[in-house]
Amino acid sequence: MSGHQDDETHEHDRGLSYDLPVLARRRMIRLMAGAGAALVPLVGCTADGSSSTARTSPTPTDTTSATDTTCVTVPEETAGPYPGDGSNGVNVLKESGVVRTDITSSFGDSAGGTAEGVPLTLTLTVVDADSGCGTPRKGAAVYVWHCDREGGYSLYTEGVTDENYLRGVQETDEEGRVTFTSVFPGCYPGRWPHVHFEVYGSLEDATSATAITSTSQLALPKDVCETVYATEGYEGSVANLRRLSLESDMVFRDGHDHQLATVKGSAEEGYAASLTVAV
Fold it and tell me: How many alpha carbons fall within 13 Å on the CB side of residue 236?
């Protein structure tokens, strides 16, 4: 297991300086919405509010999806300690090559390594919340990053600080979509399996790391995680997942209906995960 899993590091990933202000704001918004819906109307969209099927989906043998049909802006979440966007040290967004579809390998002057694991195709569909999720955000940009199957983050974790794999940016198409080719992330102590993402108003904003529209996280379904973690290379994730739940996770415990991805596929063929993101 990589150095990412020491107690001090994971306390940082659960750090109050990153997370409590965001979570407190989210809880306040929920309370206001419940007490005065007529005064504070909610807008946004779930994964089912607009088509978010991956362009190259494996055979759908495992399926999990959010059931809430309410249209809600995607919750703001912490970027965590390993964003790579210049807010905590290194800034990969300004490097040539970061705009790409396949994020499994490192690029540029890095070590040139490739992340191993069960294939994962990740599709995010960005829609306009003010339109009730009916209008795609064409020409926006999405930056995604996540840990490798051992729980390490490129650029930060000991052993992969010279790598920049599992990070990439794309511009949304006419349907507001971006699709990344990646591998299924592992589960490290203290956090439910997830993918970080930032939405920007344009590709220019993203590659200059300015004017972030939204920062959030995508959660992966438990049944799919259990299936993936039973395969070779994910042994360390098994015990970590058993100690966690979406309800106890420090990010998703106050609600994950609008962050839980719809996932289809198999461990043998690979998985396709999709989520509609209302901003």
Answer: 17
